[in-house]
Amino acid sequence: MQENFSKIQVALILLIIFAVMFELNNLMPLHRDDYDYSMVWKTGEHLENFSDVIESTWRHYFLHGGRAFTVFCLSLFLWLGKFAFDVANALMFTALVVLIYLHARREIKFDEPKILAAAGLLAWLSFPHFGEVAIWKSGSTVYLWSAVPVALFLLPYNLTLAGKNFGNSKIFAMAMFLLGIIAGCSVENLAVTTVLIAGATSFYLRKKNLSQLWNFAGIFGSLIGLIILIAAPGNFVRYDDQGAGKGILMHIGNQFAGNAEMCLYLLPLILLTICIFSNKKSDKKIFMAVMFALAAIFTVSYFNDSFITRTLHNFLVENIFPSFNPSVKFLERFKNFMEKSEEMIIYAAILAAFYSLLKKEIDTRKTIQLKNFRYAVILFGLAIFNNFVMIAAPTFPARATFSSVVMILIGALSILRSPAVMQKISYGKFGRNLKIGALVIGGFTLISALVITSDLRRENDWRVEAVKTAAAQNKSEITFPPIEIKNRALRHVFFADFDNNVTKEGLCEFYGIKDIKIGARD
Questions:
Q1: 482: which of 31, 32, 261, 280 is 20 to 30 A away, CA to CA?
Q2: C-alpha to C-alpha distance for 37 and 44, rounded to whole angstroms
Q3: Cα angle vertex 131, ends 395, 262, to 5°?
Q4: What distance in Å separates the CA atoms of residue 398 and residue 131, rounded to the nearest whole number?
Q5: Which SS3 state, helix, strand or coil, does residue 477 take?
Q6: Residues 165-194, buried b or exposed e (16+ Cβ, 10 A)?
Q7: Read out DSSP for 250-266?
Q8: Which of 2-6, 184-188, 513-517 has the least mean pLDDT?
Q9: pLDDT digits (tens, 9 = 90+) for 26-60
Q10: HSE-CB for 302 with a 13 A CA cutoff
Q11: Residue 514: alpha-carbon gap to chain centroid
């Protein structure tokens, strides 16, 4: 009976994850690079058939980069249509949550719905620039669609280390070879880490006289994929454009910035870890009440045109800043900061309040299973290495830490699975408060993302229709008022105004108009 109930819970969790992701994908319009990839690469010709998809992928490989698998998928589903892409993207995210759970579980069993739910929630909160890497089509195919085949490819290696035997089937070896090519041809840092993991695991299995044909077929396939990825002529074209004049100090600085931002997104997980393993109680009722009140006040403001920060911004700019004669650049950055500060204040206040509440309920230090701890440490080390590989890249945006966060989440969930920890986070006041906190934080970010994305979709749709009309009337340019929606729900929403060069150039070429301008609102 309990086993059947767990399976029902697992099915319900996966259904909720898919439904949420599908709706967010459905609301997200085509944006930025999506228009470029909706055409045969750098020709201006719309994708009209499957051969156009192949040609576009081929041209992209020689002119821009080696991510042939993800570019093929992006072009294919842009050709098939937005609905097909929305369904596929939601399925990909759901599949990644399942694979994170299975890697943490290290068995093909779906009997721990709490760990699966935790995997889904932590993925939602911890993936850097969520809207950019998991919802926006061009971004999700690079990061999300790379992570899924890699996680699937590495699962047999992981399960073999945990004691499962996959046999010596030639068919399975061929499947691993082909999947290895896709995994190796994913995204640069993840591809290098994948080859390292497959190679190290196979070497270990060989020393233990446990190696099988599929081990080496997988390594060989992933190595071929990595060569395809790195040797692409387009890589050298792009590096010349982006990497010129950047010395080693810039690359080292990129490491600090990228890793620091990754840790900010992992803050809920870091605080949860402190709560679980700390032995120091905290009973700050006043602080807790203040944080909850602060979150409530700013939530009201947030959903009402951010009137608190807008009023504060106007007061400072009109009455205080003139005394210091600030530069235009400073005023622009300050405005950008203030426009996005409320969601961070709400998020930080909720985290602080529940952190204080959970610390209040700590009783005794809990221990974890040694094998789970060692497994987690290895994964954390691989995540650091995976980020370090990016030192060769001209830039290291936080979104490039996506695959490293996946590794960290697997390690963290492995620790959470320890019986002593599960008992603590599942029962009593600590477990109840943790669940309430998860619902509040997850609910706030989800509702915000849905509301903001819905508003942006309406704004985008009428603009696109206006562009189509202008093109049909042979107008050379069109002017729009600026989009006033600035909130991004902690980066769960990814969107820029139409004067963004990437959006403007692709959209203009796609619809056949020369220029789009953003002017003052009437």
A1: 261
A2: 10
A3: 50
A4: 13
A5: strand
A6: ebeeeeebbebbbebbbbbbbbbbbbbbbb
A7: HHHHHHHHHHHHHHHHT
A8: 2-6
A9: 999 999 999 999 999 999 999 999 999 999 999 99
A10: 25
A11: 34
